[in-house]
## 1
Amino acid sequence: MSQIHVTTKINGDETEFLCGPEETLLDVLRDHLGMTGTKEGCGTGDCGACSVTVDGRLVCSCLMLGAEAEGHEIGTIEGVAKGDELHPVQKKFLDHAALQCGICTPGFLVAAKALLDRTLEPTEEEVRYWLAGNLCRCTGYDKIVRAVMDTAAELRGA
Amino acid sequence: MRYEAPSSFEEASGLLAGETGVTRILAGGTDVLVQLRSGLVEPDLIVDIKRIPGAKDITRTDDGGWRIGAAVSGAEMGEHAELKAAWPGIVEAVELIGSTQVQGRCTMAGNLCNGSPAADSVPAMIAADAIAEVVGPSGTRDVYVEEIPLGPGRTRLEKGDVIAAIRLPARPERAGDAYLRFIPRTEMDIAVVSAGVSLCLDASGKVLDARIGLGAVGPTVVNAAAAADAIIGTTLDDAAIAAMIEAVATACSPIDDKRGTVKFRTKVAGVLAKRAALKAAERAKA
């Protein structure tokens, strides 16, 4: 099968990869680039575990072909912390114990950061709607929503 | 499977027309990738239209209407204040499709081409009298959106056809539209029943013109012309609304399934059409 050569930027780094035409961006991240922070849940765009950003916009990497990444900037969970310094939303997830098994957590963090990059004054309703495409079977969501609201409050200096 | 990302719609059409096997057009991919993954289709050729100039653009047409490129995402439409002000019902319908992640990619043209009778944007587009710009082997032609759906998962588009853009007409004074759907939860679900209404009023508040699209009440989205006729020339008084609800019920031929019964869908279609008509009129007066 012919491979497609793709040039992209992932978490700020110029990245090139070869992928099959049927491979998703999620397959490329996990299987070719060894970036296994992005999780596969349903594989059909329902659970949000594979959330990444493309040019700053939140998408499911399972619903996008690797070839489509050509010329675009991808953001993954690996780019959320700066080195050893966790992003405020990551710290708040720990403070609020907003995770249990952890499989959904990278997707929630990428999605929550995408929201906070747009607004630091989300209402609880906005947070819940924004995160409606991220499923968690452990926490019941309350701790997650509280962590995101608390991060927003901290970042706006409240 | 081959992946191609042509730089014009004519080239895209040529690739699709020249392929003897199974083809899929890739815009947002939120339906196509699910089909691929489930093994429902095994395409020989995927044509990605997102690199075609104009495919991601929202522009004004010379007559004051709108042209929305086939690869414009739901999120991009939702962030376009002017488009939202002109066609709030269209934008609210598109924004109901899927999650934030799906909104980042899903397109109105894709929602139409997927052929679901429950597609959220299609009743709103039919109410708006939207036109699809179709590029095919023999050139570009305009097709009314309501003429495209043929049945669940099927459209009247032919081999080599690709939608380049959806066009919405210019808005006269005192015009408004609205879209409502029923789902058993608050988000992330498929319409059990839905209704889109677009209308314009005269200076005295009478309905000059109206169109009503109904979703999930038949094998395709329905243009309920008789229901629209029932409110044209009225002030949306109780008698006019009652006549509209009756005409909506006549236009419904839904199925019984786990999401809703025939009786429920028929009843709720009338309720939603009423609420959408009143909301559209309120917007027209604003």
Note: Residues 89 and 113 of chain A are 7 Å apart (CA to CA).
## 2
Amino acid sequence: MDQVTSSLAARSSQKTSAAAPPQQSAGSVAKRLSNELMTLMMSASPGISAFPKNDGNLFEWVGTIEGPSETIYADLTFRISISFPSNYPYVAPTIKFDTPCYHPNVDIASGAICLDILQDKWSAVYSVQTILLSLQSLLGEPNNNSPLNPEAASLWSKPQEFKAKLMHYYKPITADSS
Amino acid sequence: MATSALRTQVSTKFNESIHKLLAGTNTGGRAWTYTLDYLRPYDLKDRAALLRPKAGFDQAKLREALVTLHHSRQLGPLGEAFLEDVRKAFPLIEREINHYMATYEQTQDPDVFRQLLSRLRDWYNAWKPPNACAPSTSPPHQPIPNAPEPSLGLVFVLDYTQAFQTRLFASLPPSFAAGLKHLANLCLSPESHPPRVGRNGEPIDMGKTWTDVDVLGLLDRYESVISSVAFESIEKRVAETCPGKWDQPMLASLRLWMSQTVVQWMLEVFVRPYHPKGDVQPILSNIGTRFDYHVNKALCDVRISEIWDIIIDYPDTLAALEDLRECLTRVDERGALVKALRKQNATRLLHPGADTKVILGQYVSTIKCLRIIDPPGVLLYKVADPIRQYLRERPDTIRCIVASLVGDDESGDSLIEDNEPIQPIQQPEAEDYSDQNWDPEPIDAGPEFKTNKPSDVISTLVSIYDSKDLFVKELQVLLAQRLLAIKNNDMERIDKERRNIEILKIRFGEAALQVCEVMLRDMDDSKRTDGRVQDQKKSVVHPTIISHHFWPSLESSDLIMPGQFQGLQDSYAKEFSKFKPDKKLKWLPHLGLVTIGLELEDRTLNVDVPPLEAAFIELFSQRDVWTLDDLIPLCRRRGQERGCESADDVGEYGRTERADGEFVCVVGEGGGGRGDEGHSSLSTHALPAPTAAPNLPPVQTVQQQQAAQMHVHWKFVEGMLTNLGSLPLDRIHTMLKFAPGYDMTVDQLGSFMEAARREGLVVNQGGQWKLNR
């Protein structure tokens, strides 16, 4: 019940900005999100995870992505924040890196991500799990054609220097950095 | 002026002194000596003194002397002088007492004791100032108006008696009490002692002895000692007759016995013919009440010490319970009863060695028994609490209760009596403030106690748990097992289950058992559906088709039936999908039962086997020798053990020999399962036949479901802690609301996390939980 009321609150706050499919009930969004949470929890995908930030609010999540092994990001862990709009899944969630991530497609200052499925290629069949998996693979395979961080894009071919830059910005996650 | 008053006073004093002087000098002196001499205590052993008769004193002279003394107001001092004489003479008596007591202590002969009493009485009488010398006839003229009545009478005798008794009590040795008790015992139970005949054969008059005791004032002083004889006798009687005698009321017969023996004895000891009737009555009723109380108490103690066994033997012990109830109204032993029963329960019942069924049985008996003893249920509440708590911790309690609800065939005695009317389960109700017949709670009820109307046993059992949902769930599991165990669509058994469910509906309500209803309907439906499919295309497969949604989760399996079985299944499924296009069959072949005919070289066998074994048997018709490694992929079984087991089981029918992981079908060629020869009924679900060895329960028990639930919860905790870092327990608790079906309390979650910590999965730092990496 509190899920419904809280999501109602979330909806009313975002109502002005969210013009698209307005008639869908907040309850069904919450239901979808809670199903996704269940799927994500029960699936054993290594290195990706996410969970709602607060009880009672299913629309703000925190995620964790471990860098894929055999890439330059191996053994690094990144925290991201996921914010679902009230008309999810018709509109993609807003995702940004909380841990500074030196990456061609990530803005080092804001953490904003340039990933096609999060923008024009978004589809309602995607889920938190697919997003997290895409982000994980994006770490190892950046799209250097549309960089948000041109410097990183240019350094990508020089792993030594890139790693140095990466480690310069990187801050490891501490236990209570939630 | 005060001088006149003063003068009178002085003159009075003066006159008095003159009087005294005169008396002292002549007549007074003689009267004093004479009287004192007359009164002087003498030694009974002294023949001379004994011979000196008191009659030798001249009564007239004595009276004159007394009058003289009275006039000179010397009676008081005379009394004191006499008592002083008594004191001085008392060692005579003491010597005698010691003599008798020594003899008594050596011989333990009550007769000696009796003689002592009689002798003491003699002493007392001998020294007693005779009433005759009381100057009751003394002239009434009195020189001084406020002087006391001149008398050597009652007061004098009372003083003497008191002094004598004081002396006597002081000089009696401690063994005297024992002797008196011995004597009293002798009177109460003469049958256990020598007959009441004196040493010389003359009958002993015990009445006289008791009169002696009374006159000497010993009856009052030693009353408790004497009564204790009666108490002991009551206790002895109860201990002799009552223990173990639970099938008949003992209290009435005890009371009868008491009125015949103890009361008789009491009359003999305490009632003297010379007592006025009004005095006797209160004594008797007082002592009688105490004896009756003691009977109750003794019986109560015995029964309380036996209460646990009494409860076990219920209902054969009804009489004992009713005795106990009556006793408890007189004796306040309720606390002791509760304590005893709780202790017995703790040591004899609530331990891992006791079967849950036994505990439940005893609990039900306890309910019934304590309701007899104490209808309001306070005792029951106090006793039942630990049992209920213990049962709540037992994993199979619900199962046992439910099994008894549906009247399991195996359990001979059901918890419910057949003649008990079926009532809906009663939920605890809020107190009804408008109840006109409201009674206050009993005085020893605890604060937790709730007056509940005597509800039926099943309601009480169900109320062990907070909700009846658990029962309904377990009921479904049980029903599923029982339905799947039915072979060949035995309609009679299905009807029996249906009848059970109807009865349970009355208890639990229609809505709660909706799912069970669906399960029963599935059984009917699958029979009908099977009929339809068989009409289209004959098949040896007869599946039971159940609705995935309404049945408890069944153990799934990756068994793929090899060979012809798979073909049979597939063709059946095809027919079925024609008949019900919107439904899809998901086979659970491992739950079925196959009837196969085995043609061996020398004989033919018809056996019912679980499908896995049938599959192996069939494989042996293709090849004579199989290795385990070859067998496993064919059936896609996980784990070799099951394969081995099954292959060994096949050995029961044909004979297989194991050698280095190879199985050889030794007996006969063509021994393979030509399953199509026999009537093969492969139901999708049916419990394995009892002979089947790997007999896992096909339905997930509530525990297994709980374990699965725990796994889900752990995944959520893991995800939470991965992303949110460290969290306090209550935060985890609220966050877990995201998990479906989360219903743990914070405490339960705490122990859950604690268990995870012991596994090394999480660590707890200052109340914050985090993953252990």
Note: Chain A touches chain B at residues 2, 34, 37-38, 40-42, 49-53, 55-56, 58, 61-64, 79, 173-178 (CB under 8 Å).
